[in-house]
Description:
Elements: H1 3-28, H2 31-46, H3 50-67, H4 72-95, H5 99-116, H6 119-142, H7 146-159, H8 164-177, H9 180-196, H10 200-223, H11 227-239, H12 244-256, H13 260-273, H14 279-295, H15 299-309, H16 315-325
Amino acid sequence: MNWKLTKLSLLFVGILIMGFSFTTLGQEYTMQDATRSIKKGDQKKRADEYPAAIEAFSECIEACNHLGEQADELRVDAEKKLVKSHLDYANELLTNSEYDESLKHYEKAVELADKYDKADYKAKAERNIPKVYYQKGKDFLSDKIFKEAIKNFEEAIKRDPDYPWAYVRKAQTYKKMGDDERLTRAVDSAIIAGERTDTEKAVNAAKNIGYKHYAGKGIKALKAKDYETSAENLKLAVKYNGSPKIKHYLAMSYGQLSKYDEAIKYEEKAIEEMEGESKEDMAQYYYNLGTYYEKNDNKAKACEAYKNAAYGDYKENAEYKMKHKLKCN
């Protein structure tokens, strides 16, 4: 047997086989196959079978890339549909609280939108990514896993600095954690972001958190006769739209600290905001105001305040002050 001839024959057969294989691979990509893939993708997407749709659109793009210019129009259409499929699938996953999978597809939508120049889809995906972190944070907050909640709210804010509700939830978390300093910063940031984006509900929610938190602490301190602490906290409550009653309590705190100018300031604000109330309801406020003016050596203003306080339960004491203490005209 001629072994050299046999070896040459085998080499020739091998080359023929390889050539046949490459030819077969080359014939794998046809316009018919590419069209079939995009139609399959459309069908799967209509059925909300997103993974299958994504696979089909990807196959179409791969085929079009091999087919060259003749498939350019089909390729561009498939690219658009692929990005949109990732975006729509991410939206569905977010609705179903499947946050990690949702993030994966939003990020893929952003990546492909950059690659295929689909700026509108990129913008939509980037707008929704902060919402995923926000929802994750809310779930952690509900489960009292506070550090993870903060981590996700901060990531939401990193992705969208003008996301007022993320700041609101941060404030709620810090309230649960007993971190007043960070709570105040979060409330203030929520108000700024809310006003900048005209998100009135978020602004009101933030103010309400700050108000209730510091009003509660201030009233508790006032009852305990810890006037420095009560003044500090009630002033913060007033900052967040404190009620006339809170301003009245703040004035009482300053009065007990002999800070009569501040006491007068906040008592007058409380009275101003209670315009229209009955004289009996206003008597306590005016009586306290008279006391602050009296201790601040302003007889005329004290007499005026006591005159307005001479109703209901405060009538007798106010009249005594005017007649015997101050000798008002």
